Each structure stands twice: as structure tokens, then as C-alpha cells.
Amino acid sequence: MSDSITAETVLELIRQELVDAGVEEEAVTSEAKFDDLDIDSLDAAELMATIKRTYQVAIPRPELAEVTVGQLAVRVAEQAGR
Hints:
Layout: H1 7-20, H2 41-55, H3 69-80
């Protein structure tokens, strides 16, 4: 992938996907934990599929419980830049 992928661009994609899934836009911050955003497993699966399709980065769904939105964005940007 291109080196132009930044955590900010990944964060924007994640934010849009979560809002589309029904999460309040104000709730989607870099510090928000996925468990606190009240998304179901289907929404999580769709988010992971979008990340894989867009950035060719696979993140196991169980790992969402361990990271914040911002941490996921950084991780995806780092892996996509390799």
C-alpha cells in the first residue's frame, strides 16, 4: 500500500463506518473503546471487512475489545504502510 496512508485517514474511515452502523458521531473519538460504542458482532465484522478491503490489513475481531478507535487506526496505518 501507499505510504500516504495515515492514522488520520484510517480514523476517518473507521469513524464513518461506525456512524453508518448507528453509533452517535460524538461518541466516536480516538479514545473510545469499541466495547463502549455498543456495536454488535455484525457491525464489527463489517468494519473489519471494510478495513481489509480498503487497506489489505486483517484485524481479528476479538482484538477490537482490547484497543481504542485511535489505536486501531494507528495499527492499520502502520501495517498498511509495509
